[in-house]
Specification:
With about 475 residues, this protein is α/β, with parallel strands linked by helices. It is about 35% helix and about 20% strand.
């Protein structure tokens, strides 16, 4: 055991021990001043550490606006028919949330699955026309079941079908936000889904996990709850009995994406990887996110009651204006500007606008006013912004000083390629990369007997049966 003082971590030191059983929580400091924490627990819910309990309770106490995303598998029976009893149970919980004084938006999958059942399809269609036919048929059934379930509680179901263009176009984006805010004034529950009936590759959002994250950012929700059919983010495969539920992640890191596969759900379009990508989007703009098992009978009430369910990801992007949230985290970039080292420093660290002189290369096809990604010469993205020039013009101006531009074309339409007011340095640029911890770094481990010890990662690996949990924790990189 190492003799690192307890101030090195957020938890007090306690007795050491050997022959430990798999841990229920692991906290790995990347330095002495700041801890990246992963709190992991088995599926039968061992107690969390007190600081983690307090943090979860604080998040729930501050939550006034909630977005709930419910997946297709949560709402469907084995024969692909919608489970009306499941919808009624969900609506009962939504009613309880609203009675508590909170505002709620429901992002619901299930239209295509409902259509598959109604049309007698044995598997999800592969081609777009049949997918859209299933969506058109199923959406009517889906919203009908919701409306029937809400009416005994005095609510109406309000349907919003959206495409990527509703977020890409600033005016339509604001109209969606205003509609949702107005619906909160009435006894209505906004139910949002992607408009699969008209969506094509160009205007498709991709999956409702992403849609839910974008809606949460749009209305500045305090909490996004993603309901699926697993207990949360696990340390291993859900079918592995040794996999442990990770209770809380205080800071998202791109390395988490490497812990899960890219498989899709049996009826929907998303899997755990798409959920983590949605988490990344939501937490970057300050929204807390919980991934939890939607088939638990009272899951929403338990979550909002601060019970230790699912995996809580803490939001970290407070302070961004609505305008910059829209630029940085709503739509995917249409192209890239590759910048030299000096230009990156000017934009990222000095708060400057992007000038043409710092652009090394222009990639992609985009129009004036579209979102473009700023990357360094290694391809690492660190900012996004609205470009003042289309791709062809930007390519012609790349690497030129302002006076050279004036001499070349006779005038300078815009001094900046991207003005600082239309540019966002994204938090994702500070994550990812290789494991920064050495085997001599200190870890604080809490065992199933609730004892906490300090040791090096070397020692932890030797005394813990579940080494994967240590590795999962160790991936978190200091910002």
């Amino acid at each position: 055991m190492c003799d690192q003082p307890s101030q090195a971590c957020c938890f007090p030191a306690c007795d050491s021990g050997i022959g430990l059983r798999p841990p229920i929580s692991c906290i790995v400091p990347s330095n002495l001043n700041r801890c990246h924490r992963i709190h992991a627990t088995s599926a039968n819910s061992f107690p969390m550490n007190e600081p983690a309990v307090s943090l979860r309770r604080s998040v729930m106490d501050r939550t006034k606006t909630v977005v709930v995303k419910v997946g297709t598998n949560v709402l469907s029976k084995d024969d692909d028919q919608l489970d009306s009893a499941r919808i009624e149970a969900l609506v009962e919980q939504v009613h309880s949330v609203c009675v508590s004084g909170r505002k709620l938006v429901l992002v619901s999958s299930g239209a295509i699955a409902a259509g598959m059942g109604l049309l007698g399809l044995k598997e999800r269609p592969k081609d777009l026309p049949h997918l859209q036919a299933a969506a058109a048929t199923g959406q009517a059934q889906l919203i009908h079941l919701y409306d029937q379930a809400f009416r005994p509680h005095g609510y109406h179901a309000a349907q919003l079908l959206l495409t990527a263009n509703d977020f890409k176009n600033r005016s339509r984006y604001l109209n969606v936000r205003n509609t949702l805010r107005t619906l909160f004034e009435y006894k209505t529950i906004p139910i949002v889904n992607e408009n699969d009936t008209v969506s094509t590759a160009e205007i498709k959002l991709g999956d409702n996990d992403r849609l839910a994250a974008m809606v949460a950012g749009l209305i500045q929700a305090d909490l996004l709850i993603v309901l699926t059919v697993v207990e949360g983010l696990l340390t291993g495969d859900p079918t592995d009995p040794n996999s442990r539920r990770i209770s809380m992640i205080e800071r998202f890191d791109d390395e988490l994406l490497n812990l899960v596969g890219a498989s899709k759900s049996s009826r929907g379009t998303g899997g755990m990887k798409t959920k983590l990508e949605a988490v990344r989007t939501a937490t970057a703009v300050g929204v807390n996110v919980i991934i939890a098992n939607g088939k638990r009978p009272r899951v929403l009430e338990e979550i909002l009651g601060s019970e230790d369910l699912g995996t809580l990801f803490c939001g970290e992007g407070d302070g961004l204006s609505a305008w910059k949230r829209w630029i940085g985290y709503t739509m995917p970039p249409q192209g890239r500007f590759v910048l030299d080292h000096g230009a990156r420093n000017a934009v990222e660290k000095s708060g400057k606008s992007l000038l043409a002189a710092g652009i090394v290369r222009v990639e992609g096809e985009f129009a004036k006013g579209e979102v473009v990604s700023l990357v360094d010469q290694q391809g690492a993205e660190f900012a996004r912004g609205l470009t003042n020039y289309d791709a062809a013009t930007a390519l012609a101006l790349a690497g030129k000083r302002t006076d050279e531009i004036s001499m070349s074309i006779g005038f300078v339409p815009y001094a900046e390629v991207i003005h600082r007011d239309n540019l966002v340095v994204i938090s994702l640029s500070k994550t990812g990369g290789n494991w920064p911890l050495s085997r001599s770094d200190v870890a604080c481990v809490q065992t199933t007997s609730h004892r906490q010890i300090f040791c090096s990662l070397n020692d932890c690996a030797a005394i813990l049966e579940n080494r994967q949990l240590i590795l999962a924790s160790g991936r978190l990189k200091s910002k």
